[in-house]
Design goal:
heterodimer, A: 285 residues, alpha+beta, outer membrane lipoprotein receptor (LolB), chain A, 2 domains, seven-stranded antiparallel sheet, 8 strands, 22% helix, 23% strand, elongated, B: 186 residues, mainly alpha, Rna Polymerase Sigma Factor, Chain: A, Arc Repressor Mutant, subunit A, 8 helices, 70% helix, 2% strand, globular
Chain lengths: 285, 186
Amino acid sequence: MDQDALTRARLALRGVDPEIDLARVFAESRTRTPAADLREDSPPQAPVEIVLRGGGQEARADRSGTRIWRVLGWSAGAAAATALVVGLAVDAACPPAPDVVPGSPSATSRSGASSEAPPAGLTTGEVLSRAAKATSGTGCTVQTRSTLDGESLLRSDEAGPSTVSAPKNALDEHPLAVLQKVSVRAVFDLPMLDAADSHLDGLLMDELDGRPVLRVRITPTAPSPAGGDVTRLDLLIDPDTWLPRRAEVSAGSAQADYLVRSDFAWTGCTVPDPAVPHDAATARP
Amino acid sequence: MYPAIPEPVLATNTGAWRVGPVPLTPADTEELFAAHAHGVYRYARARLPVAEAEDVVAEVFAIAWRKGELPDNPRAWLLSVARRVMANQLRAQHRRTALAERARTHPSPPGHDDTRLVGELDELRRALDLLRPADREVIALLAAAELSTAEVARVLGCSTATAATRVHRARRRLRAAYGRLNEEGS
């Protein structure tokens, strides 16, 4: 499996951790506390708050004696803080990014806001849970068009667990039909996927027909079709409706490898109303 | 009455136990540093040499100490400060001489996997060089601290929807950039 580019970047940066001498840099930061550089670049910021889980100053007292470092001149630093803090003005568009690579272009492209943006902070399990809910309504049907090497196959199903039987044909005999069935079964079995299970490999942001989608990568644990193994299944989920829009199934046998793409067209499903919380989503015809 | 939990944990102020503005104590500063110094360093290191990246970390936390209060999202706040500090550093050319001297007197400790580290970091930098500055910014944030889209929005100072679009584009372009490097290398 190809390593995700961002994962690769993260691994590269994690590798620099041993470089920094934390104790020395901490001490260095303390020596700078009374200094007033950056003042001209730092607009004031409104007071902010600390949250203490577990009850405030009494609980703190026990920890203070174990500290290796003490920050001197704290009061003076705190008094000067509001004049030194870099503000976080939240604008509709991102301000230009400061580029610190000498000689690099200084122009910064600005992106317009998009109502199609995927939500932030969701886990794979939460995404699947929402998708399961969206596809579980009575009267929810899906039309699935699957393609393999230019060949196409269409089928219709009513949503619900176990409404699609396991494929009986051998993979190499009817790869398109077999893997289409695998895809539809995976979508209808979403409520049975547990986010804690290891078969949920990741949640990525992707794009389908110019619109953002959430790509959930699953290593199937269900029995593989006869004569082959399903090695990977990606579900591309619409973050607006939480309905799966496409499944990409990779499978292999002793003779060949297959990649079948299945596009879903849903009707009559329950989708969340953006005006109300998810749990209060209403049915939409 | 707050629930009794033995050990207090610094957290965002979006939680259930909001107790109002409280000065950041010396004890908390160590906790803050331990939790976020590496993230700030990675962010700086994505684009700066060792000594300058360390300088960014020291400066960012010096600002935090002077601030004296914990922001509602420390990680996003610290990275936004780092972003500004890095921009300032480019203008503060007079600091470069001192940094060069410090780099000479405090060389980086060699790691057990330095060759591979340098190779991966170099590859990342080459990929970043192929990106637009805006994409570079987003990737550095995501790679350094694994920020959520909402946190990226806070650092960049824009809406979550805008940040999500930028994240999406930047990731796609990073993938393309790595692909291009692979093609050139093969």
